[in-house]
Amino acid sequence: MVSARNNGGPFLPIVVTIAAFLSFAGTAGAQQPTPPAPEPVVPTLTPKTVVPTPRMLEPKTTSPSPAVPVPSSHTTAKTTSTTKSAPTPNAKRPQPSAPAPRKATAAAARPVPEYRRVKRQPYEPTLKLSAYAPKSQLTPHQQMMSEIKALSGLKGRNLERTYLEMMMDHQKSGMNLARLATQRSSNPAVRQQAWKIMSTYQDQITEIQRSLHHWYGYRRTAKPEPRMTEGMDRLTGYSGATFDREFASVMAEHQQGAILASLSVSQRAPHRQTRHLASQVAQGTRRTQLALQSAAA
């Protein structure tokens, strides 16, 4: 023992004491059980006490509703019959009073212009056609107007084909009338206009024939209208300046039918070429009328 203490020095007892303490603490910590987890705390709800006030303790009083008067017509009556009696009619409602008349102002007293009182009248042609008169009893102008009126009831391809065929015969009659002017007129300006009419009508007839063959698959020859025979027979009895004036009048009446027919088709034909042709006929024919009247004057 003496040798051990001498060999360890003065710190040996301190080291032995610390080692013993550490070994005891380790064994004590290993044997100590883990504490259980704490249970969740559930809050308890306590009812809130309401202190009654003097106003709450007062008894509630309900005011009675006003009595609604029941009309006599709705009162029930005991009847011995099994059928239900009809209720009496209600009293008439008061009619609203008539409005007070307006005071006359300066604008109301002002006289209304005449054009404001005139009502627009529907368009009516100058010559009224009889639906029951046979075609042979109508004048040439009436026959032309009846054909134009028939176009208004057609639509689509039927409208286009009827217009093209009618325009072929119409332009062929105009060519025969213009050819007569080139032979009998003594006015160079009238003869020049007649040659232009023949050239223009021939080009239009050729275009119409091409369109009928391309769209409808058949060819047709232009035939002069029988009603133009009367006008041409009348022109044969004139000469000189009188012939020029009568020729311009007959040609203008003949061309007016082409203008009216083309205007009725220019917006309704199915093909664009036909609409363009109708517009050209309407505009070009009007210019021809003016030029021929100026030449024959």
Which features would summarize this protein structure in a list?
mainly alpha, 297 residues
- Distance N terminus to C terminus? 171 Å
Q: Which fold name fills CATH's third level, the topology of the domain at 139-215 and 228-296? A: Ferritin
Total E-strand runs: 0
Strand content: under 5%
Helix content: 55-70%
Under the CATH scheme, which class of the domain at 139-215 and 228-296? Mainly Alpha
Strand and helix map with partners:
Layout: H1 2-8, H2 12-31, H3 54-57, H4 106-109, H5 114-117, H6 140-151, H7 156-184, H8 188-216, H9 228-235, H10 240-265, H11 272-296
Helix pairs in contact: 6-10, 7-8, 7-10, 8-11, 10-11
Summarize this entry quickly.
The protein is mainly α and 297 residues long. 57% of the residues lie in helices and 0% in strands.
Structure description:
The protein is mostly helical and 297 residues long. It has a domain at 139-215 and 228-296: Up-down Bundle (Ferritin). The protein has eleven helices and no strands. Helix 6 packs parallel to helix 10 (240-265). Mean pLDDT is 75; it is low at 1-6, 73-83 and 121-134.
